[in-house]
Amino acid sequence: MNVDKPKINFGTRVDELLTMRNISARDFYTAIGIAPQAYYDWKKKDQVPYATTALKVANYFGVTVEYLITGETDNPLQKKVEELQKRNLELANKLRVIADELATS
């Protein structure tokens, strides 16, 4: 049985990477030298940037362009980093909940 993965667009994948690394959208698009509107078009209009910009984005995050476009990677180190970043984000969220509970008690 062939089960297709849900399609995640380029912009959504960039947002995931920003969230995992606690980087603001503004810091990101300023750092790679793109207009804010280009960044928002990737998300809202499901657009993919030109190859040179996609390469800048990939280099910024330390991932491949293939990963940004398809979500697939053959790099086991990259997969492990992503797993650890997701776990780190989950733990940070749990700590925030605990801190909020302690603050209100």
From TrEMBL:
Transmembrane segments: none annotated. PROSITE patterns: HTH_CROC1 (PS50943). Residues 14-68 form the HTH cro/C1-type domain. This is DNA-binding transcriptional regulator, XRE-family HTH domain. GO terms for molecular function: DNA binding. Keywords: DNA-binding.
